[in-house]
Every structure is written in C-alpha cells, then in structure tokens.
Amino acid sequence: MCAQAAQVPRQQQTRGEEERFEYDAFISYAHDDRPVAAGIQKGLHRIGRRMGQLQALRVFRDATDLIASPDLWGRVTEAMGRARYLIVVLSPHSVASGWVNKEVTHWLERHGPDRLLFVVTGGHLTWDEASGRFDPDRSDVALPVLTQPGILAAEPFYVDVTEDAPWDPASPMFREKITDLAAPIHGKPKYALAGEDLREQRRFRRLRRAAITGLVLLTVLAVAAATLAFVQRQESIRQRNQAIALRLVSEAQSMLAGARPGGDARALKQILAAQSIGSEPEQAALLDAVLARKELLDIAETTATDVKDIALSPDEQRIVTGGADGTVRLWDADTGKPIDTPMTGNQGEVVIVRFSPDGRRIASGGATTVRVWDADTGAPLGTPMTVALGEVSSVEFSPDGRRIVTGSSEVAASGLVNHGAVQVWNADTGAPLGAPMTEHDGMILSVAFAPDGRRLVVGSGGPVHGAVRVWDADTGVPTGAPMTEHDGMVVSVAFAPDGQRIASGGGDGTVRLWDADTGAPIGEPMTGHAGAVASVAFAPDGTRIVSGGADGTVRLWDADTGELLGEPMIGHESWVVSTTFSPDGQRVVSGGGDEGTVRVWDVDIYSAGQGSVMSVAFAPDGRRFVSAGADGTLQLWDPDIGAPIGELISGQGVVMSVAFSPDGRRIVSGTFAPASESTTFQSGTVQLWDADTHQPIGEPMTGHQDHVFSVVFAPDGRQIASGGSDGTIRLWDTDTRQPIGEPMTGHRDAVVSVAFAPDGRQIASGGSDGTIRLWDADTRQPIGEPMTGHQGEVTTVAFAPDGQRIASSGIDGTIRLWDPETRQPAGEPLNGQAGPLASVAFAPDSRRIAYAGYDRSVRLWDTDIGMPIGPPMSRHADMVRSVAFSPNGGSIVSGGLDGQIWQWAITPAAWAANLCGKLTMNMSHRQWREWVSPDIDYVEVCPGLPIPTDDAPTGK
Q1: Are strands 683-690 and 666-673 parallel, antiparallel or unpaired?
Q2: Would you say residue 519 has pLDDT above 80?
Q3: Which of 560, 596, 632, 897 sits 20 to 30 Å CA-CA off 478?
Q4: In a domain? residue 209
Q5: Which domain holds residue 677?
Q6: 645 contacts 624 by C-beta, under 8 angstroms
C-alpha cells in the first residue's frame, strides 16, 4: 500500500456537509471489473457497521444505485457530486475504458485529489515522485489522466486486491484491505476501525446465537415431536461419526508410531477420512501426521500382494515388483495402477527385480533362472540365464548395463548352505562371461559392481559369521582376503562412488565401512537397526549412506563419521529390501517387501549457505523472503519452490536483523563489525539494499556504538527504527539515511528488539534489562512506565496487526501479551518452552503467534484461548533464531543457528494437501467400508487421486 490519503474525520463535518453528501463514496470501475467493485461495496457496507445500521457507509455503484436515464453522464456526475470520496478500480479493463478516465478527470476538476482512493487489480503502479504522477512506462493500470505531470500532489493511497478473488468480504485478507480503504472514509485509524468492527462482529454473533436459540425453542414448541426425533437422529449420527473419527485417528496414530499394523499409507488416509466425517475437525491430528512424516515425500502404492522384491525406475516413473506367483509387474508410480500385463516365465517365486541403469530393461531372478525384459513392452530379451549352482539370491546390472552379475547358493538336504557361486553374464545375449566364482563361505546374499565395472563386491555368510570380498570382474579372481567382522550373514553391499570404500549391511544389524583396496575396516560399526540390514547405498557424492532394515526403518548415516543423521525414517511395514539415492542426492527411494510400496524421502538439508541464520523476513506480497547470515550475507528466496533468488548479497560483519520495506522494494539490515586489527571497538551499522538489484543504497547509517540487534521500517516506509547494544533506539530518514533527532534512551542495557505499531505512532522496544517500553514515534519520548514481568532479557517484541496487543518473548521461556493502551499484561503468560525463547511473531489474523528458541522447534499458539495449536514443528539441529509469518498467514519460515531454513504450512487445508501429496491413491470403496464404516457414504478425501477398483489386480 502506498501513502495514506488525507483524512477528513466524519465527526468534524457540519450538518450542511452531511446533508450535501448523500454518499460516502462513489465507485468508478469498468464493467468487466464488476466482481471487484461488488466486493468493495459489500465490504464498505459491512466493516464498521453497528447493530441496527443497514450499512456502515453509503456507497454508490451504478449496478445498484443508478436510475435509467437518457442523460446517463448527467446522472453519473450528479451522483459523484453527492459523494465524499471517489474509489477507482484500476485494471487493464479500466485503462481500456474511456469512461473511467472521464469520471476521474471530472472528479479532479471538481473536487481535487484529496479524497481519491484507488484499488488495483490485475496490474501494477509505479509512482514518479519527481513529476507527481504515475510513470506511464512502468505502470500498466494507470489511467491517462493519472500519468499527466503534476496531476497529484503526492502518491495516492491504494490497495492491491489482485490475489483476492473472488473478492469476498468474508475473506480475512480481503477484509483487511477493505478496512485500509474504509479507514480514511470513516475518519479513523485503521486499528481503531478494525477493533470496532471486531467488537461489533462478536456482538452480532452473540445476538445471532441468542436469536437462533429463541427461534429453535419456538420451533421446538410448535413441532415438538417431529423436531425432537430429527434432532435426536442427527445427534446420534453426529456422535456416531465423531466416535468413528476418533477411532480412525487413534488407530492411525498407533500405525504411525509403529505400534499397530496397517502402515502409514493407511494411517494418512484414515486421518483424512476422520477430518472429512467428524463434527469436530481433527486439525491437530492432521498436523501430527504432517510432522510425524515430515521427511516423507511420496508413498507410491501398488495393489500388489505377496511381493518378494520391489524397485523404482531411475526416472522415478515406474515401479517393478516380483511376486511369489512368479510374475513381474510394472506399475505407474504416480497412480499405482498396473501397466500392461504381467511378465511371466520365471520359475517359482521372483525374489529379485532390478532396473538397468538407463531404465530400459528389467532383470528378474527366481529359482535357478534370471530373465531380462524390455521395460517398455514387457517382452523377454535374450535367453534365460540358468545358474550352475543352487538358486538365485541376488542380481545386479553393471554400471554400463552391458553385464549382469548373479549370486546363487546351494542348500543341502539338511537345510544348511553348502556354498555359493557368483557369475557374470552378457546382459544382451544371456551368455556367461568366464567361469563361476565359487570360493565363498556360505550363502551369497548380495553382489554389486564397482563404479568402473572392473571389480565386484560379494556379501555372503553362514549362521556364524559373514564375509565381504572383492573380485576382479574380468578374471574372476579375488583381489584380497575376505573381510569378516560381521557376526552372521552379510546381507547387502555397495561401492562408494569413487570406488575406494565399501559399505556392508549385516544380519547383526550393523552397517560397516571397508577400504576397498586393503580390506581394512574403517571406523566403528554403525548401529541402530533392530534386525538385519537388507540394503545399503551411497549418496552420489559419497558423503552419506542410506540403509534399510528388517525393522522397516530407513536410516541415513554420515559416511565419514558413522553418525546417524536425523531420526530413522519409519513407515514400511516389513523388510526394506531396496534403498537408493536420487541422482541429485536430495531424495532417498526405498522399497518395502510384501507390502508393495515404494517411498520417497526428503533428505536434502535446506541450507542457506550463510552460516548461522540470524533473521528472516517476508516481503509484503509474500513472493519472496530474505534471510540474514552470521557471515554478513543476505539471501532472497522463492517460498513457492524453496530456491534462492539471485546470488548472495555480501555485506560486512554479522547481520543480526533484516526487514522489508512496506512496498517490498528495499531491505534494511542491522549489523555489527567485530573489532579488527585497525580498530579496538565493535561498530554497528544500518544498511539499505535494493531488493531487485541486490545493491546497497548509499553508505551505511552509523551511530550505534556496538551491535545493531534489530531494525524495522515504519508502516509508511519513511523511517527506520534500530535498536542496539549501546542501549539506544535510533530513528533514520529512509530517503536521506540521516538520523532523526536524538537517540531514545531509557533501557539500562542493550535494546534487543524494536517494532512499530501498525499506525506508526508508537514504537515498542525490548531490552536485556527485562523491560518492554513504548515510545512516541513523533516526539521520541517514552510513554508511561516500562512493562515488567520477564525474568531476564526480552528477546523479541511484536505488535499485533490490529494494534490491540504486543507480544514479547524472553529468555525465561515465556510469551507475554500486553495491552498497548494500558501497558498492562493481557492475560497470563504463555509458558512456551522449557528454555529460552529467541523469536515471536504475530499472524496476520492477530490471533495466532509463532515462537521459537533454544529447544530447536517452532510452535504455534492461539492467543484468544491461550492454547497451543498442534505439536512442536522440529527439524532444526540447533537453536531457532527467527520466525516470520507469510503475509497470507498460510506458512511460517524459520531460520536457525544450524544454518538451515525451513518453511512450515500451518493451515488445516495445507496440512490435508500435504498428506494427500504423499499418497498415490484414495481408499477404495471396499477399504472405506472396512476401515471407516459401511454406514457412512464414501468420501473422496484426496480430490484428483485415483480411486482403486475393488477388483484391482493384486499381483497374484
């Protein structure tokens, strides 16, 4: 929003003026913008309306107020002459309409620009201060009259409603913008009008509830018997549905915790079903599920059963399964639907399936044969490969896809494994290459090629111990002695990308690293799996290892230190038979045996690359946010895709605080430069930046004698307030970058946080002395006595957008709310964490707050009822330094000392969409009857996802 238009308080109008102005406002718009104009009119009618009033403001719009007449222009000008304000809808349609330009020209000639308000939709405006007009080359919705030099004395007030379709005043964001528009017409500050409107809404709701109650009582008296029966039935249905919803949630939470069979795909579907049928929406359960599976990106389900092995194609578009019935099936990874007909021809169970590196072929192994199939047509390729010894237990393609290696084992009549063999084959013809490699102790469970294809690693073992051994893939000769540290079988093996290390997973539940040349163990075993480690794989850069186990978990390890990275990823119901990294290393793909699912996990750390992230802030339009680093840099981000915008902005010192200007065109940062060889002191600076070019605007603003802890723009963008460790608050002129008056002093120690009131008339500050102070922004004098209550430093202060409350966070772990008029506490303190808090922020609705601190989590709180919203949101590995709401209130961004930035969806709709985004399909109708209830009509809980047919192929 641009500069505020001059306000003429309604209470100061003379009786003659009231009589002369029949309308408070006249709306000028192109007819193609009727929905916008209608929404504006409705909003102005409603906002600030008192009980008994038909309308808060009288607003002229041609569709509702214009009487048909041959002299149309005369009627229009007559109505404009009886209106106090002109509201103009600026859009591409209005620019193309000569009528709107004519109306504005008439208004300016008769009334001047003082009571002219604008609403922008579908374009943008750029004000040219030097010529006193909108720049015609940079404004695509400016009327011709508004581009004339000197036409306006100052930049006029306007709101942008482009993103607010369908322009319903019931929408909080649209209503807030219409409140901005209504405030000057009412002659009141926005916060005062918003507060009155909120109180009237609450009063209306109370009266409405009372009226409805009375009406219901009268209706009950009139038709008592029928109504009572109906109400009882509806209540019975409601209670039944709510009971079922609670059962679904309870079962699902047990499934997510691994305490109940069913799996996370079913759990997520049950929570979504509970949300759709419950009379009290299970919003907390939605958030619980989102956080319980925060690393899970996708569950690619199939309807296959009795699956022995499963794999995902390199392009992540198809799934292949091998079944106990001897079939190989392809499935669409997005929909879970089968592709074409099953591939048949294997003898017995298909225990191994693998895609070739290019994804064009599939190898399957079972009993004594291995077959190769065309992945597009399902046709067999070449001749079957028949192993010379025992039954097939492992199959892998070479990196170039031209060879296949198999492992097989012979089992004696006693059930003991005699020995195993490894054979290399031509993948095109099926012919063996060289003699089998048979010097193995026990069963062959895993084989893998080195990245150069010249060596093989084999994992084997008997009931006592297992062995890892490297072989020359061309000669079939072992290149070293067996590596025998595992207790029990070696179930899985993999080469590092550089071929210098080998990872192995054992039946003893450990992952081990080996030197591929010497066979020497590297470091200590990686422990954590409860059971055999069935799969191991290196990340493309070799820095991490992923393992999948018989315990159904997927774990990520640091390949250098052997430390577990993050928490185990849970969700599979049975053995995790395959794991691999995506080519970019940002995702892990795991396949579960028996259950027929492939899961994709997010293992990418959303790092700012700035060291510790000290501050984050959203742009007013929500399309960007900025992060500030301890390394002195600023980085802009696209919140929709989580990608950086442009290069890092390099500053000097440590950036402690960052903020966008109200128009989103500038960024201010507060820093301090540590003492250097040339200086013996630390100096703090305030710096302006161009948000588009990423270049500094002028020289730094200096004056603080130490750290600048906090910076903030005034609501009109003309001033900046800064707080520093020298105990002062300073005001700066944004255009001249010069200090305004003397510093504000009063805190006995550092000023850690500053915030402007929404009307710009007051400044709140929080200090290390444990106090919150209010200041008059014009006189720079303190207002009343300090607000006290925190035990120790106040780390953040924030005004609610409606101006009714101030929130403060402290190292005492509490959030406190204050009334800015009385400077008294507004309710009891909120005990946020068992540790110091570093940041607090209000949502645009002024009701919710987000806060974070030393416990590494971000939390939401409903300030009206004094209760938390859902569980903590935890992904940071260190203290969370800063949190910020998106302008639409739909998400939070957090930055921490771990150098990571996370964005959190915080609306029930977003949580439901998040869960649906992890699924491949809805419940089938049969599953709905069995899992939910046969007495409740089916609900498609994830619109757009396929609904499986009850007779879908099962793989049998």
Answers
A1: antiparallel
A2: yes
A3: 560
A4: no
A5: 613-899
A6: yes
